Request: fold
Amino acid sequence: MVTMLDQIFVLLKHWLVSFLPLGLQTPVSVLISVVAIIGTFPALFALTTVLERKGLGRIQNRIGPNRTGPFGILQPIADGIKSLTKEDIVPLSADAVVHFMAPLVLVVAVFMGFAVLPMGRNMELVDMDAGLLFFFAIGASTELSVFMAGWSSRNKYSLLGAMRAVAQMISYEVPLLMSSVAVVMITGSLSLVKIVAAQNQYTWGLPHWYIFTPWGCAGFVMFAVAATAETNRSPFDLPEGESELVAGYFTEYSGFKFALFFLGEYLGMFSISGLGATLFLGGWSAPLQALQFVPSWIWFFSKVMLSIVVLIWIRGTLPRLRQDQLMNFAWKFVLPMTLLNLVDVGLWRFLGEGWIRWVVCSVLMLGAYVLMARAGMRQEHFGPRRYRYADS
Amino acid sequence: MSVVFYLLAGVTVLGGLTAVLLKNTVHCALALTVAFAGLALLFLELDAQFAGFAQILVYIGAVAILVVFAILLTRGSETPKDGVFSRTWMAGLVVAAAVFAGLGWAVIQSAQFLPHETGAPPVVTVEQIGNALMGRYVLPLEIVALLLTAALVGAVIVAMHEKGDIK
Reply:
């Protein structure tokens, strides 16, 4: 019974496919998985928009949407109809082809990232040998769509937003990759399925998740910071800083194309949260051995939604960073720390079992953090801000 | 040579051609990206996962972005009035054709020195590539790393503020 619930979607797919002739079974099986991904995550997106608006409302001492349906949960349907019926305005001077292609490229690229995420036991579309590399390769191509959107709009706010977004995404992609490399070094595989399998073991009823090791904890924090920046979420939402740039690179998009950008952004959040859960939080494995009877896909989606809730919480709490702070933070703090984390992982791997590696690895990361933070603070000149051109 | 190969080859060549022939520089850069993507897919079609994904990560994720940044920061994307072709395009064509012919000749000639393989080629995992890079080919890897570091340091020095500059 427990196994059946755990594998219910896999069994359902096999049952559906079994009605077909043998030659059609593989393509249809793949098609069903793809449709499931394309159906599930936009549904989650709809749910998240309500959650975000309600949550932010509560943080800001408002009520949030409460008119459509009970507690406003039908709000996404109203939003969807609104964006579908709105006029699609394309600026006269815009580059029509590139302007049209940009949201499509973004959504397609973001959807492809889900192909390698194991969303439950035996629930992955493809188990690639180089799954992690595939994920980052696809993630890198979203930057181009952001640039396409900003450049083709022929609007200085759009272009500025796009330049900011691309610069930020490139800067934070390096720490994102570097913090994931730590996990690859321990697991010895780029396949996300194998990474989850390596974490799905228990000692004294507690899981072997990488976040419960010194290097994994540090790596997870840096991964989370880089992932937040990579998805342009607050406090790293300079590319669409509405007080400066109207809406950044999608200022000139309206109607359903705007909704596609919105969808792409949220799907990017889901996929990067899923990756973070897979790499550091044990993917679909249960947090306690005693809880293994709960289906694996419930664990995966709870971890993803928990990350989303934290992201919303952070958005409601922290103010936006300045451009130079953003870049300094990426290159002068997070990147050296991720490099040090790689050394830490090497030590952890070769010091052997026992308490020594816990002490050595923890002290190394904590000490480096304290020293670098101290040094950074000493260099920082607090006081009135000096402007380069606006002063005197 | 399957249908997929011809499709991908068509996309790649078309991307390359449009990159040369289009007037707007940013359009050219985007068309070049299509050619990069076609090349990556060709690698994937040959079951070279690592090379294919690395191609996407490096060329689409970094090189294409670098190209568009360079275009936007230097010249602007306006189309030049006197056409995009330089006056010496014939000579350029001859040089390109000569390089292509030389490379093609070398590739075709080298085929006879390779052992004749029958059956499906072995599937190479990322692990094997990693072992090869860290074992047999570690010296070339280190040389490339040194070269890249030197380039990086040079770029930083070029971009650095002069002393006394207002930050």
Q: What stands out?
A: Residues 123-167 of chain B form one domain. Chain B has two domains: 1-79, 123-167.
